[in-house]
Amino acid sequence: MKALADVTAKYLTDGWQSATRTFEVVEPASGKVLANVADCDAQAARRAADVAWEAFERWRATSAFERSDVLARWHDLIIANTEALATTMTREMGKPLKESRGEVKYAAGFVRWYAEEAKRVYGDLFPAQDPTKRLLAMPQPVGPAFAITPWNFPLAMVTRKAAPALAAGCTFVLKPAEQSPVSALLLADLWLEAGGPAGTLQVLPTSDPAPLSTVLIEDPRIRKLTFTGSTEVGRVLYAQAATTVKRISLELGGHAPFLVFGDADLDNAVAQVMASKFRNAGQTCVCANRIYVHSSLAEEFTERYAAAAERLVVGDPLDAATDVGPLVDAQAVAKVERHVAEAVDGGARVVTGGKRLGGLYYAPTVLAGVRRDALLMREETFGPVAPIVTFETEAEAVRLANDTPFGLAAYVYTRDLGRAFRVSEALEYGIVGVNDGTPSAPYAPFGGVKQSGIGREGGPWGIQEYLNLKYVALGLGKA
Ligand code: NAD
After folding, report:
1. 232 occurs within a structural domain
2. Please, which contacts does 213-217 make with residues 24 or more away whose CB atoms are closer than 8 Å?
3. pLDDT at 20
4. Judgement on whether residues 193 and 234 belong to the same structural domain of the protein
5. Ligand 1 within 6 A of 210 CB?
6. At residue 3, does pLDDT exceed 90?
7. Whose CA is nearest to atom 35 of ligand 1?
């Protein structure tokens, strides 16, 4: 098992990560300092780009079988270190330990999938009109990739990018979120232990993301920018990436509608909206944010939902019984308080919760009678707040669901197969869960439309983001 102190000490002194300054990573649950990590600056970014470029020449020349072997060993080491990784994640960003253990498995799932997929990056030999020609489409690694990830899934958001990139033959420079760099450092240490060559995976923690990121985004040798985070920051990075015309993947904010039709299985809908809304204290991009319930079911749904929310155990995330931990920081709590206050001012009824519980804890909250134009129906709340709105017709439900600039995940609860298809097709979202509140999987395409992003992660689609297709036309000449 990895010792946290060893790893952070190592990354304060090792080569490309040597930094003269450090910054504190603070545990949201206790307010205590978990670790001091290197605070990388623009100069560290320039060095990282040099290293990634040099390492790329060697890594791209390895066989897919060799890369697959390293990834497979990395997967096994991640699983073997589940407890260290899970505890670190829980301490650095506050998600309950049982969820952190689940995230380790989910994160490792991407590594395993791409260990396998590395060997299935096929090209094509396709027909030419001219019989003396042979035409090929040849996939090749894009080149060094720069990734920026958020704190809400400190491991999975990294492996979902790093595994396909490394499998494809790209090198990878990661800037983790300020709140959760330690999990990323542990992951990188395991990559080296698995036999990953030096320089193929670099982690640059920083307390000041913009200057460091600008260096990497403007460096023409970095060929790809992959970002997961808010739409606001994504827009800035998209514009910056245009200066060097980089390949780009953006996994941005969501504002998921959860539609419960009159024919839905109520037990299932309530159980799944619980998981979708209160997982990670509501701090996920695919969280149910706007819950639309057919008026015939609204009362019963609301009652059952509130009762289930009251049964949740809120407390120390390191305690195995905890369902809901603290929010990540004071800003997050302030946003939740602002959204709830605005909704209540507009006439919403607090069915349960609706208050801060001390520290960074906020009570799981269900609000009924929420106005359709309330702030929390327009913006991602990123907290444990479930606003319920009623509807009458299928067309109205679809219109309400689509009435947002976001388009990441949506959920539909119905037992009518025709409706399941009609509504899934009409929803302007990248992901639709039909009677399924947790559709994400390493082998499935994850990503948004509209202002929720560009590109897909996971499955065979995810590796394409790290491959360029080269067309080779071969004239055969005469014998
Ligand atoms: P954020 O956009 O504030 O930060 C994300 C990352 O961007 C962090 O690493 C941060 O340091 C970095 N960053 C911030 N400003 C930057 C700048 N100017 N230049 C370079 N880097 C910069 O988002 P957050 O609050 O950490 O994460 C929550 C957001 O992420 C939510 O909107 C959520 O929906 C989204 N998210 C999306 C997905 C997805 O797959 N679509 C997954 C998880 C989270």
Report:
1. yes
2. 213/45, 213/146, 213/148, 213/175, 213/237, 213/240, 214/42, 214/240, 215/42, 215/45, 215/46, 215/49, 216/45, 216/48, 216/49, 216/146, 216/173, 216/175, 217/146, 217/241, 217/243, 217/244, 217/246
3. 76
4. yes
5. yes
6. no
7. 229
Could you tell me if the CB of 239 is within 6 A of ligand 1? no
Say if residue 93 is in the same domain as residue 42: yes
Domain count, the chain: 2
CA distance 389 to 373: 11
Q: Is 249 in the pocket of ligand 1 (CB under 6 A)?
A: no
Query: Exactly one of 285, 394, 457, 465 is catalytic; which is it?
Result: 285
Is there a single domain that holds both residue 158 and residue 194? Answer: yes
- Is residue 465 part of the annotated active site? The answer reads no
| Residues 14 and 91 occupy one common structural domain | yes
CATH (domain of 263): 3.40.309.10
Q: Where are the alpha helices (DSSP H) in 28-63?
A: 42-59
**Which structural domain range is residue 331 located in?**
256-441
Contact 442, 109 (CB under 8 A): yes
Domain co-membership, 288 together with 426 = yes
Options 92, 178, 251, 457, the catalytic residue: 251
In a domain, 112, yes or no: yes
Residue 199 above 80 pLDDT?
yes
CB of 380 closer than 6 angstroms to any ligand 1 atom: yes
- Asked if residue 57 has pLDDT above 60, the reply is yes
pTM (2 decimals)?
A: 0.97
266 CA from centroid of ligand 1 (Å): 34
Which atom of ligand 1 is nearest to 382's Cα?
A: 31
Determine whether the shortest distance from the Cβ of 257 to ligand 1 is under 6 A: no
Protein residue with its CA nearest to atom 4 in ligand 1 = 229
Ligand 1 and 391: CB distance under 6 A: no
**402 CA distance to ligand 1 centroid (A)?**
23
> Residue 10 above 90 pLDDT?
no
The ligand 1 atom at the shortest distance from the C-alpha of residue 148 is 9
CATH number at residue 135: 3.40.605.10
Question: Is the CB–ligand 1 distance for residue 406 below 6 Å?
Answer: no
Annotated active-site residue 285? The verdict is: yes
Could you tell me if 192 and 318 lie in one domain? no
Mean pLDDT of the chain: 95
Residue 479 lies in a domain: no
**Residue 248 and residue 261 in one domain:** no
Distances (CA, A) of 268 to 37, 153, 260, 277, 366: 44, 26, 10, 14, 18
Name the CA radius of gyration of the chain, rounded: 23
Q: Are residues 212 and 289 in the same domain?
A: no
223 within domain boundaries: yes
